[in-house]
Fold this protein.
Amino acid sequence: NKQVTLTLSEQLSGNSFMLYISETKDNEGFTINDSAYFRYQTVNFGDLVFNEIMAKPNPPVSLPDREYLELYNRSADTIYLADFRILYSAGKSSRITTGKISPQGYAVICASASVSDLSAYGDAFSATSFPSLLDAGMMLTLTSLDSTVIAVVEYNNSFYGDENKLKGGWSLERIDTDNLSDNNNWRASTDANGGTPGRQNSVAGANPDNIQPYIVKVEIIDEYSIRILFSENIDSSILENTDYYNVIGVGNPSEAKVANTELSNTVELIFNKNFDVGTLYELAVSPDISDFYKNEYRGDPVFFGQTYKPEKENIVINEVLFHPRSGNADFVEIYNRSDRILDLSDISIASRNRTTGNLQQAHKISETSIYVQPTDYFVFTTDSTSLHQCYYVENPANVVIMSGFPTYPNEDGTVVLLDNEENIIDEFSYSEDMHGIFISNPEGVSLERVDFDRKTSELGNWQSAAQTVGFATPTYKNSCYTHTDTEETNGPFALSATTFSPDGDGYEDVLFIDYKMPAAGFIANIRIYNLRGNFVKEICRNMALSSEGRLVWDGTKTNSAKVPIGPYIIYIEAFDSNGKVYRYKKVCVVASQK
């Protein structure tokens, strides 16, 4: 026999070995004394990461005009790369011919014709059929000898964070090699050469993934199946657990399938019960679904069902930044106030000519479907980088980057939402004078809608975004949002805001207690208490109320000293002419003070 299998008494430790053969004879009686070198390695997902991508080497800054990928070894072992593959578009793959990476080392992977040019910067190894790295972005997957997925990246132009470097000559660099997520973890190189092949990235630094995964969208595949797209890649073994999903009224899926055996951001769920056309379903997802940093699923309610075309005022204009800071871009935010799932591909955004009143500069929001769930906020802009730099963006997936955008003058203008037949869905005419009197410089300050249920054009339904939120609230609830309590559910008393800041800056310095009584002759007592039930101040005692009016609390105690920041209870007793007592409790929060 020419072959023998050896079973070892101990597990191999390490990856490089020498096998010694002695006193073994062949059929003719000749003794064999020999040795053989061999390698053994187990490589897991995350041991290597894509660390640098040069997709646009031309025009060169200083590096050779060559495309390349850089790998970084996060493990404690040397990893041999021969026959590892890079998978790219349409099932194509590129095979790495040779090479190794030491622990915490780098390897540049490129076409064979580029090896000599790039070897001057570090270890460079060739790959057959090296992919043409697309300028606009693509998905790349690294697999080991046994087809285990080791690393994945799906880059795009937003990774650069610098419009000038998009023109070419600059590589994309990973910020934190311990962060396996690609969310906000890449930047254009800041090195004078335009990149750092074979050495530590110029943008390297701590950038831990603290973002909880969330669902970007849910699609109905057929009457029994849905597809879920998460905001980041998750271990496939987690996604395939059917106990982690429940559709209210339908139950758990019978099967959960992912396309990738190691990790994915997409899962297909198959149910035994069909989905009815026109019904809105709620999907509940377990917090046991977590990313590689053990950040649990965020837990937002997610609705899905048949999509509907937007109609007048079921999507409303909710926030407008028309006077951005120098070098930054305008944005417009919308809100879905309906109970239906709407498709943004059915909407365009436009402006009106101030002289003729004609519609102009209409731009389609998206050529592909983008689903807007009930109560969702979406922001449209041409520059997501400046948006993230200037403001807190709570839901990055709800930012739509448009290639074209209407011109909205700083002084005054009109924002118009249109459907595909150019019917007006909503329209807002703004002016700089609508900002609060205490906004001395409106640059970078958005106008926010106060109430979804009041008309867009209604006087007083727009206010400046608060300084406490950074003067804008893209993709989440407006800082000035106030929905007036209804008499049926909350009585005749309503607060002007849930939070106010009596700090003397002229903005929400007092809390108004508005009332509209159902009849004449009411007497009221109103007292303020802290959460421990301690008395703070009496607003009125046995006051005869008019049919409607307003009372004020300035955030002080009985001795006129300012109260500490925190929540307070407003306790109201109202007596009608027959002596019947009505009691109400309202809660407000006193915010930061000088």
